[in-house]
Write a structure and sequence with these properties.
It is a single chain. With 212 residues, the chain is α+β, with helices and mostly antiparallel strands. The chain folds into two domains: 3-34 and 182-211; 39-164, Immunoglobulin-like (Sandwich), CATH 2.60.40.1220. It is built from four helices and ten strands. The protein has a four-stranded antiparallel β-sheet with strand order 1-3-6-5, with no helix packed on it. Strands 2-9-8-4 form a four-stranded mixed β-sheet, covered by helices on one side. A two-stranded antiparallel ribbon has the order 7-10. Helix 1 (3-33) runs antiparallel to helix 4 (184-208). It is rod-shaped, with a radius of gyration of 28 Å.
């Protein structure tokens, strides 16, 4: 085997190793860049023990929450829903009013929100009260949609909440939608890897021609 041929093969191996390494770096960086939103705090906090139930609660997320598709329910110990009106959003914070007869016991808070990137997350936690209280339901503003009456059992409808998140501004589904949801740095990195690999391959082919 001639010395030029051996050198060419070594060069090809180096190019392959560099391309594989760059691809691995791009793929390893993708999950961190695509991390979804998450609940980072609440007031009252999860598992808190309170004297009585407050007239509202707030949930704080790691990223901003879209006003579309927010669902939040508070069940008192007998599973009757005591949240009133619709939750309000301000960046990453969601606030929900509470009213009605609030006996002592364990309250379950269920939430479902949609991040600005279109991904929906859901979860639940509980708080416990040691004593009963009663909070009057606030009057609805003129022209507002009537809220469900306090004291009526309700179950979170995940399908309805999911359909509420569908809007003209939602990211498209399918392969094209997945590509559009990829973070910019990941796309740029992948393109750079492909361009570098193509350029190196072309150089090697040009160097090899005199040997054939």
């Amino acid at each position: 085997m001639s010395e030029p041929t051996t050198a060419l093969r070594r060069a090809v191996r180096r190019v392959v190793a560099v391309v594989v390494g760059l691809c691995a770096l791009v793929l390893l960086g993708a999950p961190a860049a695509q991390a979804h939103n998450s609940l980072v705090g609440s007031d009252p906090p999860a598992d808190a023990v309170l004297a009585v139930m407050p007239d509202h609660l707030t949930l704080t997320f790691a990223e901003d929450v879209s006003p579309v598709g927010v669902a939040l329910m508070v069940h008192r110990p007998d599973q009757v829903v005591v949240n009133v009106g619709v939750p309000t959003t301000a960046g990453p914070v969601v606030t929900q009013a509470i009213a009605g007869d609030l006996p002592a016991g364990v309250y379950r808070v269920m939430y479902r929100v949609t991040s600005d990137d279109g991904h929906a997350i859901e979860g639940e936690y509980t708080v416990t009260t040691l004593g009963p209280t009663t909070i009057a339901q606030p009057a609805a503003p003129v022209g507002a949609v009537e809220a469900p009456a306090v004291g009526q059992p309700m179950v979170m409808d995940h399908e309805a909440a999911a359909s509420a998140t569908s809007s003209p501004s939602s990211p498209p589904t399918g392969p094209e939608g997945d590509l559009r949801r990829l973070p910019g740095p990941v796309v740029v990195g992948a393109v750079a890897v492909l361009v570098a690999a193509g350029g190196l391959t072309l150089v090697l082919l040009l160097r090899r021609r005199p040997l054939d």
